[in-house]
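Entry:
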Amino acid sequence: MIIGINEKLNGLVYQLRIPMPMDPGYVFSYVIRVDNECIMIDAGYPSNDLLEPPLVNRLREIPNCRLGMLFITHMHVDHIGLANELHNNLGLSVAMHRRDYEQVMKMNNRDFFMRDYEELLVYYGVPDTDMELLRSVINGISRRRRFSTVNPDVIINGDEERIDNIHVILTPGHSPGHISIILNEHNVAFTGDLVLPTITTHVGLTPINPGNPLLDYFKSLAKIRSMRPNCLYPGHEGDICNVNGRINELMDHRFSRLCEVLNILRNGALTIFEVARALRWMDNRDYLGLDPMNRYMALTETAALVKYLDYLGIIKAGNDNKYEIVKDVICNPQALIPSDLISP
């Protein structure tokens, strides 16, 4: 397997393009010079064919770079995959946020993990015809997790910390413990999957992304925007240097989806599954036209949209887990997005 490498910021940053077997086909890791050593951001997809020799050799090719710390932006398999192997082979200290590490530990207990998911699928109103299909997707997620265990040396606990002169901020939404790394002196940020150039980041309500992930996501986007970075270096696709423009696009997209959910519910109370079926998805496809993984993502994304509207007090669920509108609102950003999160 070939791992590409691209030098950025005059040799301050090296971007590693690491192959993986799922869309979009690769993930970026980064090596950054900080003071007298280097740090790494994200560990790539778990594959022994990638570790020795391709990834280790690529890392050793970077001149005058003694790697010390590996920061994990979030717990997903394409970002955490080779963390333990890099720790064991190169002596890197692994750092990740406590909130994501707690979810990794939860997934290690497969029986509880599957039980929590099945209870949630029942609450979402998934019929028997789809239950087995979605159960197979969740089984696949659980199996992949077994190939990407992690034992962090450093646990990040707060919303904002400095670790060995590295500025780390908590930016949840895509996962509960997603972090971004800020290079203040160069005014750039490494944002994992929080902001991608063209892909819309998945924000789903699941047992391992609990609470109100869409509200978290809005707040994280606003936090990054408030720091006024010149460019973002994400986990996929490419650099983002029109930062405000892209963040505004992402907020507008979520706002549009919230309005679509409200318009669907104006016709009567529905379960989360029924709302997901009524929405249009990738390339304007019907829910039933999606493959199993994208059905799972559509369902959990719908759940996050519904949870957010419930939090605003606009919709509520009855005893049958069907949601109905209890406060009629006009679809505009002021009604659906807190004023401090709307672009100035």
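The first strand starts at residue 4 and ends at 8.
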